[in-house]
Design goal:
Number of domains: 3
CATH topology of the largest domain: Beta-Lactamase
Number of helices: 9
CATH architecture of the largest domain: 2-Layer Sandwich
Distance between the termini: 51 Å
Strand content: 15-25%
Largest sheet: 6 strands, antiparallel
Strand order of the largest sheet: 3-2-1-6-5-4
Order of helices and strands: HHEEEHEHEEHHEHEEHEEHEE
Helix content: 40-55%
Length: about 425
Amino acid sequence: MTATLDGTGRAAVLDEQRVLEIQRYRVLLEPPRADLLALVDVAAQIAEVPLATINLITDAEQHQIATRGFDASVCAREDSMCNVVLHDKEPVIVADASLDPRFKDNPFVTGEIGDVRFYATHQLRTPQDVVIGTLCVFDLVPRTITDAQEEALVKLADRVVDLLELELRSRELAQSVVELENARDELERSNAALTAFAGQVSHDLRNPLSAIRMSLGLLEEQLEGESPDLSDVEFVLGRATSGAERMQLLINDLLNYARIGGEMARKPVDLGAVLEDVRADLAGPLAGATLAVGSLPTVTGDYVQLRAVVQNLVANSAKFVERGQPARLEVDARAVPVAAGEPERVQLCVVDHGIGVPEADRERVFQPLARVHEDVEGHGIGLATVRRIVDAHGGRIWLEETPGGGATVVLELLV
């Protein structure tokens, strides 16, 4: 059995539709528009009356958004004359409202609010077929209008809606233009970054490629000789292989950087367990280093990606030390004060006592292929990848100076 709305329910639905339509036009909260004021002037002139108004009727009030001959105001909907005939599709023409049973007790007629006698109105209907109000002309004395005047008022009522729609479409067009300009600016910024990135990649790939070509050239010379020295051949071949391996590592790092930002799991991740796994994986780079680990929390995120973050940070801290000096590292956590209602956060600190990062470079090191210490092995992609992961987790990462020398990486994540 299909449910049907009663009269009250249907009226509530119409009120909701009308309020939504009126909100789209944004005329209730703004000063009277010049184009609408001009139109009510024309309406008054056509009807040869001193008073005219454009009324928008919400679920509770009547708003006079443009008037001729009096100051605009807002009244309760039940006091509105136009509300009585809001859904009459044909124009309503009343020679003397004080004699009409629909209006004779209305405060706009009795003198409580006004002394209206002649009254003519026609509804404002949007392209979505929603009646939002009326175009109304009136006088303080009884009178009539001709059929031609009535027809002109109907056409003017349509023009009211046309003006409202035109402003709405203009505003939407302006917003679209802003969005397109923002998209264009972002595309230009992205293209500029991509151009710089491609240039740096080309530069960094050229170095191992040159080493490979040089090694292969030497190998070719060796093999063209009558009795090549196998030890020299083995040495040159090793150099070529090493260059190829460096290229492979760089390409892998680039792919990892490009892939970050896809779907990721959001589960509890025990950073203490993550660090233990990282410590095992970095047994070689951490050989001879001291690594002190404090009490580490559980955070929300993707285990695989957060492990990549921690491994990169610990490996970097172990690598950037004075030549011949053992690495000294500490990994600890600290709470972050948050205001009531904000999500709880924690900061993971990876501290080293190595060569540090100059203050001017502490933000630049997170850019792709950025290098501060050229004499230390690496491609400059690791920290850029780390930042992408942290951003995807809704966190932050930055560098501080370690008291006494060195760098401290601070990673802030949601608990």
